[in-house]
Known about the structure:
Number of helices: 5
Structural class: alpha+beta
Shape: globular
Oligomer: single chain
Mean pLDDT: 87
CATH superfamily of the largest domain: Immunoglobulins
CATH architecture of the largest domain: Sandwich
Strand content: 35-45%
Largest sheet: 5 strands, antiparallel
Distance between the termini: 47 Å
Number of strands: 18
Amino acid sequence: MKKLVSILLVLVMVVSMTACGGQSVSDVKSDNQTPPQSTSSEQAESSSNKNSKATNYTVENEVVVDNEYCSVTLASCKEESSSVDLKFVLENKTSDKNIMFSMDNTAVNGWILSSLFAETVASGKKSNETLSFSKSDLSDLDIEAVDKLEFSMRIYDDDDWMADEFVEDTFVVYPTGKAEADIVSPDRWYGNDEMSVADNDSCSFVVLGTYKDDIWGYTVAVYLENKTANKTLMFSWDDVSVNGYMVDPFWASSVTPGNKKIATINFSTSDFEENDIESVDEIEFNLRVHDDNDWSASDIVNDTFTYNPAQ
Length: 311
């Protein structure tokens, strides 16, 4: 049952990632970002430094997982013209099992980025697989180099979903060789029309602003932060209404411990049309934040809020 739930979650993630395919942080920032104040000379110098600086990725054949069933090795990390590519070697050591290697919740320098990594390796075989991050996506978050990569990995028998996992854990690698204390996670950008909805010792949730996407319609950009050291937090909206009409985007997003994320919440254009909504004056929603691995624990946030976007 645990495997079935996991597969369903992966399918939901695929659909979600597909729905967000036409969006990027830069789309949201272009409408909402308030840039920091700096002189033109400072901006020119910063731009020159970024363009001329070549990242030295020192990681080579670093063993991430090695047991009697399988192994995972980070063979290399290379900076290409438009991406940073991490090459993994996956090995199935069994003689009679097809093993699935899956990776999710990938975070670069403290920022979770969308990625999908899943590969089946036949018994006794190896496979080279690449995890890539777009340079434009990294730049949108002011990430100059992949200094720290954190990810959750599940490795299991692809033909027996009821069997125990061979591996289920979170791993951290440092492709540039920097120490943890030397890695800086860039600050978030600030929206012109943002609203801090929740900010406590465990989490932050900020509505950054809204924009109209040509494909997915009316979109709300949000900032999520998990301040805990050992809990994966689930953020979700329920009982959502726009201008008093129930219009639910069916949105939820998880954030692993100590990480942060920019997410987008999409409203269906057809739902707006059915309710004669031409402009958005008010969005009301119930925000729930809870420990995703302990459903019996008390909610960290569970309250109703109202956001009034600028027209």
